[in-house]
């Protein structure tokens, strides 16, 4: 039997390809109201609908992604500094030591 192929995704911070399950997905949450700015959230299940991007669960990669404006670019959306702060806090829960 052939070995199962591991799905790879690229981290938008360090730009390295890693197995999808080692990365955390960020996704643009759908909003109920029209005209409301969509919030970028973490999607630990990787199953939320919508446009997503992947990050290593590391503050370092998150900060790199912020500096390169990779999150708004990947998601094709505006991301407020408050939203980035919340994401950063949330990501810390998944950070590996
Ligand atoms: Zn990374």
Please give the share of residues in helix: 25-40%
CATH superfamily: YlxR-like
Radius of gyration equals 14 Å
User: Which strand order does the major sheet show?
Assistant: 4-3-5
Given the helix and strand composition, which structural class is it? alpha+beta
Query: What proportion strand?
Result: 15-25%
Low-confidence stretches: none
Question: Which features does this protein show?
Answer:
28% helix, 97 residues, two-stranded antiparallel ribbon, 5 strands, 3-stranded antiparallel β-sheet, 20% strand, alpha+beta, 3 helices
Secondary-structure map with pairings?
Layout: E1 8-10, E2 17-19, E3 24-28, E4 40-43, E5 52-55, H1 59-67, H2 70-75, H3 81-92
Bound molecules: zinc ion (ZN).
Zinc ion binds at residues 11, 13-14, 16, 56, 61.
Structure characterization notes:
The chain has helices at residues 59-67, 70-75, 81-92; strands at 8-10, 17-19, 24-28, 40-43, 52-55. It is α+β, with helices and mostly antiparallel strands and 97 residues long. It has one domain: Hypothetical Cytosolic Protein, Chain: A, CATH 3.30.1230. The strands form 2 sheets. It has a 3-stranded antiparallel beta sheet. The protein has a two-stranded antiparallel sheet with strand order 1-2. A hairpin with a 6-residue loop joins β1 and β2 (17-19). It starts with 7 loop residues before the first strand and ends in a 5-residue tail after the last helix. Bound molecules: zinc ion. Residues 11, 13-14, 16, 56, 61 line the site of zinc ion (ZN).
């Amino acid at each position: 039997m052939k070995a199962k192929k591991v799905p790879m995704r690229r981290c938008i911070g360090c730009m390295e390809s890693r197995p999808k399950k080692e990365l955390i997905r960020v996704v643009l949450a759908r909003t109920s109201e029209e005209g409301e700015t969509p919030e970028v959230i973490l999607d630990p299940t990787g199953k939320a609908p919508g446009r997503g991007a992947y990050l290593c669960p590391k503050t370092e990669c998150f900060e790199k992604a912020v500096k390169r404006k990779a999150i708004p670019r990947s998601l094709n959306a505006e991301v407020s500094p408050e939203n980035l702060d919340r994401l950063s806090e949330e990501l810390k829960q998944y950070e590996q030591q």
